[in-house]
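TL;DR need structure tokens for one chain.
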Amino acid sequence: MTKNFGIIGNPIKHSLSPVLHNYWFQKYKIDANYSTIEIYNNELSEIVKKIKDRTLSGVNITLPYKQKITPLIEKLVNDAKITSSVNTIYLGEEGNVIGENTDVFGLQAAYLKEVDKTSQKSALVIGAGGVSPSVILSLQKSGVRNITIVNRTHEKCLFLKKKFKELKIANWIELKNIIKNYDIIINATSLGLKNGEDFNFNFEEYKKSLIYIDTIYNPLETKTLKYLKEREVKVFSGLEMFIYQGQKAFYLWNKINPEIDEKLIELLLSKLK
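>> reply
TL;DR here they are.
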């Protein structure tokens, strides 16, 4: 019988998760299908119910539900327990719905190997939404202790500070002027998303050694990433993080660690043109 998987979010049309997972299902001859599922807040409990009754074998979660779904999950494990942010759910061996976070792994595997753990790096996390706790935890796991967060809604920063006590908070109106103070900047907002709004200014003043990471992968290059890349700043799009978090989710569901091969990369890049 065909197993059904999917990704929930709103908006969700931009997601390449179906391309990623269906490629692996075909490669490993698994009788399964993965699709996008656009839902609203009042439908979250229905998704969890579908995991419980095996209508869905596994689900990924993206904006804006990574934190909103956590109260409905029966058991948070590993990084999900620390961040209270979930991007992967499935049915556990004891019949309970498990919530896992593979974003932390995705970010570390993709980019944070670039961070010199022996030095005192400072990081600025822009945004306090669903992926932000994962970004903060991945930075901490990579040895970065000096972390500042900035968000348009200040209250969300205060909420994260309760979870990550050492976190510093900056004011959104100061963003343009404080960029020059950081070694690593991670955009954890939806600014730059395809057909969406972007930063309303250029990152004109910054450290020459800056590492700029975008958690967005569609488009492959946001306006800000392209601007910095043209000025020879070390930049990373969200594509690698997206692939690695998907790889771990696939393993959790199927107990197969799928290969990230050239054919897959070419396929994903063709969808981003």
